[in-house]
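Risk register update: the risk of archive-format incompatibility is retired. Evidence:
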Amino acid sequence: MLIAQKKEQENIAEYILYLFQIEDIIRSFKFNIDDIMEVFVLPNLPDRSFEGQYRKWYQEIISEMKAAKLEKKGHIDRVMEVFRELVFLHNTLHTMAKESKYKTLCESAAGYVPEYRSKSDMKNNHDVEVIIHAMYMKLQLRIRGKEITAETEEAFDAMRIQIAFLVREYHKMKSGDYNFIQN
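Archived output:
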C-alpha cells in the first residue's frame, strides 16, 4: 500500500507493474485475505501498526477484482485509468509537430511491439499497454531467474526507453508542469 502510493507519485510505470504483481498475488492466494496477510504481508511489514491499513487496502483490491470478474486475468479500474491517461498522452505526443524525440523512440520500439503482441493475448491492445505488459514479462523472467537473450534484451530496452520518456512526460502533465503548446 505505501509502496504503491510512493510508486504512483514517482514512477507511474512502476506503479502499474507493482499493481500487476499485487493482482497476481491475490489470484495466487485465491482471494483469501487472511492467507495474503499471514503469508505475504505480515512477514514483510517492519511495523505491525500498519496491519489494519494493509488489510483494508488488499481487501479493496480483492473486492474490486471480484466485482469486475478478474479472477483469472485482467486489471482493476485504477490500472486501466492510468493506461487511458498514458494512451491519451502518447497520442498527443505522437501527433505534436515539436515532439520528434518521442516519435523517434516510438519508431525504435515499433519493430518489437507487433512481435510481443502476437505472442501474447493482446491483439487489440494499444502499443503503450503492450509495452508495459512486456516490461512485466521481463520482470517476471528476472524474478524466476530465466535467461534473457541479447535479442530479447534489445527489444525490451527499446520499449523501456519509450515508456521511460512517456512516464517522464506523464508526471509533468499530472503535476501541471506540462505545456502542450511549448513542449
